[in-house]
Amino acid sequence: MCEIELPNGKKKLVTSCNYPIREPIKVQTHSDTVNNHRKVLAEMYLGRWPNVQIVQDIAKKCGVTESRFASELTDTNPNACILCGRCVRACKEFPLEQILDFAGRGIKRHMTMPFGGVDEHCVECRSCEYVCPTGAIQITEDRNHPYDAIMIRDAGMKINAEMATLDDKENRMRQVGTANIVDVMDQYDLLPCHNYKFGSLPDAKKIYCDVFRDNFLTQGACDGCWLGCSMACSKAADGFLLKTGPYKGHRVTVDGPEYETAAGSANMGCFDPEFVLEFNFYCDTYGIDTISMSTTRAFVMECFENGIITKKETGGLDLHFGNGDAVLEILHQAARGEGFGVEVGQGIKYLKEKWIKELGADPQFLNDIGMEVKGLEYSEYVTKESLAQQGGYAMAIKGPQHDEAWLIFMDMVNNQLPTFEDKAEGLHYFPMWRTWFALQGL
Ligand code: SF4
Ligand code: SF4
Prior knowledge:
The chain is mainly alpha-helical. The chain folds into four domains: 3-61, no CATH class; 86-162, Alpha-Beta Plaits (2-Layer Sandwich); 167-382, Aldehyde Ferredoxin Oxidoreductase Protein, subunit A, domain 2 (Orthogonal Bundle), CATH 1.10.569; 383-442. Helices cover 43% and strands 7% of the residues. It contains 19 helices and nine strands. The protein has helices spanning 32-48, 53-61, 86-93, 127-131, 149-166, 173-176, 180-187, 209-215, 259-267, 273-286, 290-305, 311-314, 324-336, 339-344, 348-359, 363-369, 387-395, 408-413, 420-439, and strands at 3-5, 13-15, 101-103, 110-112, 219-220, 235-241, 251-255, 372-373, 376-377. It has a three-stranded antiparallel beta sheet with strand order 5-6-7. The protein has a two-stranded antiparallel ribbon with strand order 1-2. Strand 1 and strand 2 (13-15) form a beta hairpin. The radius of gyration is 29 Å and the shape is elongated. 34% of the residues are buried. Bound molecules: iron/sulfur cluster (SF4) (2 copies). Residues 90-91, 95, 97, 99-100, 122-128, 139, 228 line the site of one iron/sulfur cluster (SF4).
């Protein structure tokens, strides 16, 4: 029904939805030729699918109430597939799956999953069901087990459309995941480098998101969040060769890196992307949080650089910023329950108290450089100019963790909270929204 007539007396009918426009053109959408052609098509549709509501509606618009084309192909099912192709496009553009397509030719043409079976890669996002104009697709399973699947589906379609049209130009979450924020934070002087001393360093470009995308990332991975989410921001690197630890020499799949892991590496002065992935893998494998791990080690490194601790305390390890081998060794020690790693594994609050008491360290200095509140290490952002993010850290029960307090982007990047009132309002609704988010299992 999308026929149009081309200009310049060509009298040529084309389908507007897939006609390539190479220069500005004028088209006829309701010429006599177009209208007559649509009428015939409407009659053919009505002949084949006489009881499908949308076919009846279109035919009526074209002034057609009866068809001369009834045949053995006539399908009286009111929910018959009319081969419009909307589901094929939705599956390709929203969940990026390409599971649905047409098969067969001529009168045998039909919409199907590969080889006519049920494809296990279908994530039950319901996009195809939503866009189908006839009700031919009805999804009966939903592995997300939502309370109201249709409500969630309908609300999600707006986000799906935004992801499909905007993400590649803006956040690129579908390409690189949350690691895209490394670039943004570095450019806005918010990327923690060398234990939050700097918000940006030239070396940070070595761990920009494109480095991971172009050299390591091989797949989107499901992180146990909402199946069928069209953002699909979780990424993974297959076949990564480990250089240290109990799996040295093995090729493994690394789930990540997320922004916080890459930024935490910058905080330790480690700008080698292979270090980021190795650190990421072993933290995951040992069940250790990359944020607390990075922030604590960044603190320990600054203490080492300032002579608070020496190789005597570290068991011979040189802990200057950037020594990734030493960071990994402490990580393995912590997992094995040995050496300096065990001590560092207790976290910043413990280390501050111990080194003030046992080494006579200056409490003021350690409190200045030991980035923890309520016993929890800071997330990976330079927050000193963001009152909103700091307020969030103070108000969150668990301490300075970004889940309930992630206002830094609105505050410092988008400048959406310019006044005290705006920041206060952000601190009012954002934690509630994130708590709701978590309660829904999203
Ligand atoms: S439910 Fe989603 S993934 Fe499955 S076929 Fe439909 S659009 Fe594709
Ligand atoms: S199943 Fe629905 S959306 Fe897909 S081609 Fe058929 S009518 Fe169109």
